[in-house]
Amino acid sequence: MSSKKRPSAARARPAAVGGVLSPEARARQALDTRHFREAIEHYKTLLKQERRVEWLDGLADSYAGRAAELADKGMLSEALVVWRNRASLCGRPLAEGPYLGWLLRAGEHDAALALLTADGLSATAAAELETGLAAVVLTSPDSALARLAADSPLFRQRPIALAAIAACCRGDQTELEQHLRAIPFRSPYRDLRFILKALSVVGSDPAQAAGLIGRAVVAGPFEGLAAVVRAAILPGSRWLAAMPALDDEGRQLLLDLKGCPEERRSVLFDLARLGSTPPPAKVVELLLRRHRGLPASVATLCRRLLPYAQQRMSEYQGAFGPLTEGEQECIAALAAEHQGDSRLSRAHWLRAAEWYSPPEKEPLQAALILRRLFEVFVGDADRADLEDLDEECIDWLRRSLALDPDDLATYLKVIRIHRQGRDLRAARAMVDRALARFANDPAVLLEAVEVALAGNAFKKAVTLAKRLLELDPINSRVRALIGQAHVSHARKQIRAKRPDAAAKELALAEQWLISADERSVVKLLRGLSATDQTASALLSDVVRELGGQLLAAFHLLLECARVGIPAPATLRRAGIDLSGKPNASEVLAVAHALNTLREEPRALRTLLDSLRAPLRRAAGEDFSESERVSICEALLRWDERSLLQAYADVGLKRWPARPIFVYFTTFARHGPRAYFVISVREETALARALDQAQDDGDQRTALRIRGLIEPPERFHSCPTGDSDDWGDLEDAFADLGNGLPLDPRAVLEMMLGMAGEEQVISMAREGFSASEFRQLERAAGGNRKKLARLLVEAVGDRVERRAADLPSDPLPPPPAAPPPRLAPRRKPPAPPVQPVHDDRQKDLFDD
Amino acid sequence: MIDPYRILGVEFAASDETIRSAYLAAIRESPPERDRERFESVRAAYEAISDRRRRLAHQLFDHSPPTLDDLLSAVSSDFVPRPPSENRLLRVLGAK
């Protein structure tokens, strides 16, 4: 034992518990607490007194522990010395435990082989030793094997094992099989059979290789080779991740098996270091730095990653060859997208499309780019709010069809956009183009039906729909469309005072319509097509079928509006009385109908004139929260703000914490431009509701509330403190005119905030007669601020009344709040939906 | 970026027919009841490159980050697996 580090006195004498410890107890304690050096000293001292077996065992255990400690630290030579001391001082066999493994790890193969000739080995120990030395025997020179017994399996089977290795490396399966069969089951080389066989199929049949390698002992004598095979059979890139765990020879063998050329190995090592999710920019850097000798696939990959490292575009071109102008634009566009700069990406995409467009270049790529632009900047073409789509965006699709006229999806998209935007002429032209290319495509035919219906070309719609049904006989939507086409045609006939023709159409409609509600509408139209007693009886039947006065009145009024029949007389004829309070289910049914209706707002408002009073009476009914929200949504959609206020107020009282009712009440009171008029109290309530909506994850409500409390974007730069800054103020007004529908009330409200009440009063009074102005002055009671506000309200009311030009909901009806849109919209609002009398369709579709 | 060409094991310039054959072979090999994940990736790969339009769109617009598999596949596209040399194998067996 070295004397360099003697255990300290304190450590040699551990604290006694309940008295002084005996030397033997101290030795035991040191061993148990893994203080091996200390234990060795104690046992050696004890053994000097008497050579007891238990002390000898203690010393052997202490040496073993110390040697293992050193081996774990990689101090193999020291560990071997300690182990040899254990053998000599304690009389233990050298070739037991981990000694052989340490010898092999230390590269002392001769010493390892010498163990085979050691005396006193049991048969089992000898067999274990032979197995452990199998790999050493295979790789040792013949001279080193002289001491092996000539009849030992290690010696006898060595040539067979070496021949098997040679056959495996030659790829000679037959010979390999033959040699492996000659290795007995109990041979020290038995694991080699599985490993070599697995190695021979690792490239061609990894699954079989996995089964074979699973039969070899883990950490056996051939573990180095087995580990390489285990790594080689890993799928995908996992072998690359397993590579660092192998020793250097193992790594090289693995790369040999994969067929990696010598000059590419360092690139692979670098890749392995990038981890499982390599950062694209680092990958580009690495590949460009090591590009020499890399295959063409690397250039492709690198090119696709350039948007992450746009600054390396010239370096890329130096390494892998030039990029076309179109490619460079595409890379720049993707890079801009990646950085969230949509304006820049749009510009680059458009330039790329321009570049690819000529027939000699790649028109299909240009078409794809234009379609992608539409997807990115407009999104889903099936959305219901595409009526006022920016013309430029539609043009992208049109141009894409000119470049690539075979894309069905784009035809459908363009047709749908035109149809929803009420540009039926363009829709029909596109339908014709699509039908010319896809004559029997159900989707095109369905769109053709929809377009014909939208243009009131009902016969045409039915013809197309029947053609579609031949292709797709179970299409329930088409069946419903045919029924609806007949119903619409019947309406047209009733309007034209042709009851017989209407009856014929309604009879046809009944053949196609299935739902009870639709059939009730047919019956209702039969009742409206005549004025005799039978017709009146039919109307009374319909009132019963529709299950209530309010709902029946709604449908009756709607159909009256559609066929141009005076409503009050018809209501009387049907025996409908709206003086009572409707029940909750009727209100819900009407709200549902309102939510699904696509009708002209003005016609519907006339219809609602008759229903407003009964609906208001039912506002206090006991609706559930979702029912009340649904009713409010319907009223909001049709801009029935007074009714909305009635229903929302009750909702807010019942569910004061629900942000949606805060939104509804504020919107009902002030409309979409609430920002200009809301009080501090309302703003506080909205802000609280916004927080709540965000906490609830209700993004839609949060967005809507934000629309009320945040200034429109174009007002952010308005002057605030300096009322003399009229240049800025004028700009702000110009912005107001450009960015929003010009609302005098909003203008005056803004002015009130910025320039003060006197400016507003002097500006607004010109619009009133002297008597009107005096009346307002009296109402203000001398309060100039109040007068300014009264003037603002009066101006707003007057202009909106003029705009509405019809008796309407008591509160003025500004347009519904539009959702925020990605793309700029320039087209004016869509014309009315109901009956389109368009001369342009006369020759094309007219019945 | 999960390279659909690698998933289906087809060349970059492969035709519609070749890609479809590779797709059918791949889903026969990994039906959804056996290996759902692999099946999904094969389907997604096929949808990305099944026809010329899609292949072009993938080439133009896909810039998702690469996986290690994609990188390795690109760098090792010209590797030809081969049996080890006897010397190398014996060195592995005799290594410390």
Description:
The complex is a heterodimer of chains A (847) and B (96). With 847 residues, chain A is mainly alpha-helical. Helix content of chain A is 66%, strand content 0%. The termini of chain A are far apart. Chain B has one domain: Orthogonal Bundle (Helix Hairpins), CATH 1.10.287.110. Helix content of chain B is 62%, strand content 0%. Chain B contains six helices and no strands. The mean pLDDT of chain B is 88. The chains are: A mainly alpha (847), B mainly alpha (96). Chains A and B meet through helix 6, helix 9, helix 11, helix 15 and helix 17 of A and helix 4, helix 5 and helix 6 of B.
- The total domain count of chain B is 1
The value of Rg of chain B in angstroms is 17 Å
What class do helices, strands and sheet pairing of chain A give? Answer: mainly alpha
* CATH T-level fold name of chain B: Helix Hairpins
CATH class of chain B: Mainly Alpha
- Count the beta strands of chain B: 0
Beginning-to-end CA distance, first to last residue of chain B = 41 Å
Biggest beta sheet summary of chain B: none
Count of helix runs of chain B: 6
Q: Compute the average pLDDT of chain A.
A: 80
Helix content of chain A: 55-70%
Comma- or semicolon-separated keywords:
heterodimer; A: 847 residues; mainly alpha; 48 helices; disordered N terminus; disordered C terminus; B: 96 residues; Helix Hairpins; elongated
Short structural summary:
The complex is a heterodimer of chains A (847) and B (96). Chain A has 847 residues and is mainly alpha-helical.
